[in-house]
C-alpha cells in the first residue's frame, strides 16, 4: 500500500473507534454513574502502567520482520518473532502477579466511593488478564505492520470497536458495572488477537512461533534495539496515565471524570495525527537508507505541514466550540473539561508536527537522544502535575502536561533533529509552516463569525459548524497548494531538473 492509502486506512479505523467512544462515554456515565465511571477510568490508568512491560519490542518486531522478510531469511524471522513472544509470555506472567497483588491491596486505597471492594478486585484481575493476553498477541500485530498491511490491522480495529459497542449496550448495567466492563474488554481482546494471528499467518505462510525457535542471539539483537525504544514507550505511558492517576490519588476518583473528558477529546484529535507518523517511519527509513536528503526533506515538509494544519484547525475549533461539543456529548456543562481540552489540544500544535521529526530520527537510528528527551518530558510532567494540582486542581495537571511538552520539544528536540538530519531550518519553515497560516487564518475568521450566533447544543449544529470550517480551511489550502515550494521542487525533479544531488542524511 502507498503512503496515502496507509494514512487513510489508519484514519478510517480511528474515525469508527472515535464514534464508538463518543457514544459509549455518555452511555456509560448514564448507566453506572459518574462515580462508577470515575473508578473505571482510575483503574485503567493504574493498570495501564503495565504497558511498560512491552519493553519497546513493538517497533523491534516490525523492523526485524520487515528486514528478514525482504531478505527471505525465514529461520531468522521466526527466531525473532518467537523470541519476542517468549519475552511477552514472561512479562505477561509478571503482569498477572502484579494484578493479583494490586487486587489484594485495593482495600488500602480509600478512593473507590460506593463501588464494592469485591467488584474492584475482580475488575483488576480481569484487566490484568486482558493486558497479558493483549501483550502476547501483539506480536502478530507487529507482523502485520511489518508487511505494511495497515488496511487489515485497521479492519480488525473497526471490528473489535463495533463488538465492544454491542457488548456494552447489551450487558452493561449499574450493578457490577466495572466488572462487566472489564469482562467486555477481555472478550474483545481475545477476539482481536485471534483475528490478528489468523491474518498474520496468511500474510507470511512460513511464519512459525515455536519454543525451539527462541534463540539467544535473536534475543540479544532484539534487546539491543529495544532498550531506548523502551524509554520512549515508558515516557509515553507515564505522560498518558500519570495525569489521571495523580488526580485519582490526590482528589479522588470522581475528580478524574471532568479531566478525562477533556483529555479523551484531545486524544481523539491526537490519534489521527500520530497515525501520520506511523506511516512516515518506513518512508523516512527508505530515504535515509538511499542517502536521499532531498526526498527526506520533501517528505518531512509535506507531513509537518499536514499535521500542523490539522492540529491548528482542531485547536481553533476547540477554543470556540469545545464547550458546545462537551455539552452535546455528555450533557455536562463543565468549563474545567473545556479548558483541559483546549490546553492539551494546544500542545499538539507543537507536538504533532515535531513527531514527524522524531520518526525520521528513529528511522535514521537516532533512538537514544529522542528516548532521553521523551523521558525528560515525562519526569517534568509528573513533577509539574504534582505541584500545580495543589493550586489549580485538574487545570494545573493539564498545564503540567502541556508546559514540558512545548518547551522541551521546541528548545531541545527541534534543534537536535535539524542538526542530526542535516535539515535547512529556514527552508523547512518556509515550506512546511508558513503555507499553513492563510488557511488557519481563514478558519479563525470563520469561527469568530459563527461564534457570534446563538447556538444550542446538538449534533446537527456541530456537524454544520464542522463542515463549514472544513470548507473554509480546505478552500484556502487548495488555492495555495500549487504554489508551495516543495511541490515546485517535485515538479522540477519530475521534468528532469533536480533541485539537489542526494547526499547521506544523518
From TrEMBL:
Annotated Gene Ontology cellular components are: plasma membrane
Arranged from A to Z, the UniProt key words for this protein are: Cell membrane, Membrane, Transmembrane, Transmembrane helix
Where located? Cell membrane
- UniProt membrane topology term: Multi-pass membrane protein
Q: Where are the transmembrane segments?
A: 7-29, 41-66, 86-108, 120-140, 152-172, 178-201, 238-261, 306-326, 338-357, 369-391, 397-416, 461-480
PANTHER family registered for this protein in UniProt: PSMA PROTEIN (PTHR30250:SF26), PST FAMILY PREDICTED COLANIC ACID TRANSPORTER (PTHR30250)
Question: What's the protein here called?
Answer: Putative membrane protein EpsK
Amino acid at each position: 500500500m502507498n503512503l496515502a492509502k496507509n494514512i487513510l486506512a489508519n484514519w478510517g479505523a480511528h474515525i469508527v473507534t472515535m464514534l464508538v467512544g463518543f457514544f459509549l462515554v455518555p452511555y456509560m456515565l448514564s448507566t453506572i454513574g459518574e462515580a462508577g465511571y470515575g473508578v473505571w477510568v482510575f483503574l485503567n490508568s493504574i493498570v495501564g502502567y503495565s504497558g511498560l512491560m512491552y519493553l519497546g519490542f513493538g517497533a523491534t518486531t516490525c523492523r526485524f520482520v520487515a528486514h528478514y522478510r525482504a531478505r527471505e531469511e525465514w529461520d531468522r524471522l521466526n527466531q525473532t518473532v518467537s523470541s519476542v513472544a517468549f519475552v511477552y509470555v514472561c512479562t505477561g506472567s509478571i503482569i498477572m502477579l502484579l494484578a493479583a497483588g494490586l487486587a489484594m491491596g485495593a482495600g488500602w486505597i480509600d478512593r473507590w466511593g460506593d463501588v464494592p471492594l469485591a467488584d474492584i478486585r475482580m475488575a483488576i484481575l480481569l484487566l490484568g488478564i486482558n493486558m497479558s493476553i493483549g501483550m502476547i498477541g501483539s506480536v502478530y500485530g507487529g507482523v502485520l505492520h511489518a508487511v505494511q498491511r495497515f488496511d487489515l490491522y485497521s479492519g480488525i480495529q473497526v471490528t473489535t470497536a463495533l463488538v465492544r459497542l454491542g457488548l456494552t449496550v447489551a450487558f452493561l448495567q449499574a450493578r457490577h458495572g466495572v466488572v462487566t466492563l472489564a469482562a467486555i474488554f477481555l472478550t474483545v481482546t481475545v477476539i482481536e488477537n485471534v483475528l490478528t494471528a489468523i491474518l498474520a499467518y496468511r500474510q507470511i505462510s512460513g511464519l512459525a512461533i515455536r519454543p525451539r525457535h527462541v534463540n539467544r542471539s535473536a534475543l540479544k539483537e532484539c534487546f539491543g534495539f529495544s532498550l531506548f525504544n523502551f524509554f520512549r514507550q515508558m515516557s509515553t505511558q507515564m505522560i498518558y496515565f500519570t495525569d489521571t492517576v495523580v488526580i485519582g490519588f490526590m482528589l479522588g476518583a470522581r475528580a478524574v471524570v471532568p479531566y478525562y473528558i477533556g483529555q479523551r477529546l484531545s486524544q481523539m484529535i491526537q490519534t489521527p495525527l500520530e497515525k501520520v507518523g506511523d506511516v512516515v517511519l518506513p518512508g523516512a527509513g527508505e530515504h535515509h537508507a538511499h542517502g536521499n536528503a532531498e526526498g527526506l526533506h520533501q517528505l518531512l515538509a509535506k507531513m509537518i505541514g499536514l499535521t500542523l494544519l490539522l492540529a491548528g484547525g482542531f485547536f481553533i475549533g476547540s477554543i470556540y466550540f469545545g464547550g458546545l461539543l462537551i455539552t452535546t456529548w455528555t450533557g455536562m456543562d463543565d468549563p474545567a473539561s473545556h479548558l483541559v481540552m483546549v490546553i492539551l489540544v494546544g500542545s499538539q500544535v507543537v507536538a504533532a508536527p515535531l513527531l514527524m521529526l522524531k520518526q525520521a530520527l528513529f528511522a535514521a537510528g537516532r533512538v537514544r537522544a529522542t528516548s532521553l528527551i521523551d523521558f525528560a518530558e515525562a519526569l517534568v510532567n509528573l513533577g509539574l502535575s504534582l505541584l500545580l494540582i495543589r493550586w489549580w486542581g485538574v487545570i494545573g495537571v493539564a498545564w503540567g502536561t502541556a508546559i514540558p511538552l512545548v518547551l522541551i520539544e521546541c528548545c531541545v528536540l527541534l534543534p537536535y533533529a535539524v542538526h542530526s538530519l542535516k535539515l535547512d531550518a529556514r527552508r523547512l519553515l518556509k515550506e512546511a509552516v508558513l503555507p499553513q497560516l492563510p488557511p488557519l487564518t481563514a478558519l479563525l475568521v470563520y469561527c469568530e463569525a459563527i461564534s457570534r450566533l446563538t447556538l444550542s447544543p446538538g449534533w446537527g449544529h456541530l456537524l454544520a459548524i464542522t463542515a463549514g470550517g472544513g470548507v473554509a480551511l480546505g478552500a484556502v489550502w487548495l488555492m495555495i497548494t500549487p504554489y508551495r515550494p516543495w511541490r515546485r521542487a517535485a515538479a522540477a525533479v519530475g521534468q528532469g531538473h533536480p533541485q539537489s544531488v542526494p547526499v547521506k542524511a544523518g
